[in-house]
Each structure stands twice: as C-alpha cells, then as structure tokens.
Amino acid sequence: MTNNDILRRLRYTFDLKDSYVKEIFAAADQTVNRDQIIAWMKKEEEEGYTSMVDIDMAAFLNGFINVRRGKREGEQPAPEKRLNNNLIFMKLRIALNLKAEDILEIMQLAEFNMSKHELSAFFRKPDNKHYRECKDQILRNFIMGLQLKFRPKADV
Question: Which Pfam families does the record associate with it (predicted)?
Fold first, then answer.
C-alpha cells in the first residue's frame, strides 16, 4: 500500500476535511497547504498527483495520535524518515487507543481472522525472534475493518 492510499482511506473512514488534515499535521509541528493535500489525494494516473513520502506520512500519523489522544509532555517525537507497515499499524493502534481484542474485532469486521499471538508479533521490535513483518494485505484488511467500524453505512 502506498502512503497516498493509506491517507485516502483514513480520510474517508474518519471523514477528514482538508482543514482538519492541516490541523493534524500542525499537531505534529508540520505545515502543509491545501494544494499538497489535494495532490496526495489524487490517484496515480491523475494529473497533479504527488507521491507522499514516508516522513510526511509519519508526521500525519504523529499528528493523528496527538489530535486523538492529546500531546504528550515534553519534546514531540520526530517523524520517521522510513516507515513500514508495522510502524503504520502501531501508530494507528496508538491513535485509536486500541487493545489487541479491539483490533481482532476490527479484523473480523473485514472477515480476516488471526490469533492474538499473530497480532502481537507485528508490534514487537524487529530484533525480537517473534517479530513478524506486516504485509500489505493485513494493513489493508485492518483499514477496511476501521472503515466498517467507524463508517458502517458507506455511501454507495
């Protein structure tokens, strides 16, 4: 999944307007303008499409955590220069204050079943022997489950 795709899906799921997306970035001490947001929202084949780099996606997710849960005391974490699906999954889990049981329920909404042990492997440190890389399919199903939970009556 591309960062643009993830942003588009999250924007739809939580019905985020351009002004609110700007506020989310501002909560992570980043400034973006409406034109950047519009370019990120376009499909790859559309004119004016801009690929969202990892550091911008990390800033968005850090801001999403700050907006949903409140800023933590002290210095704010710097956005990561390189993101992977495990980090994105973890940041979404933190922002939405989800426990393992909540995530498993969300995954079941998308008709994707997994055990608590399989799930915990995604949130371990990469050097842990039980660490497992989060594939696109798992992140896609999680975001689909979020959409079904937070926006159940999709506009058809």
Answer: DUF1456 (PF07308)
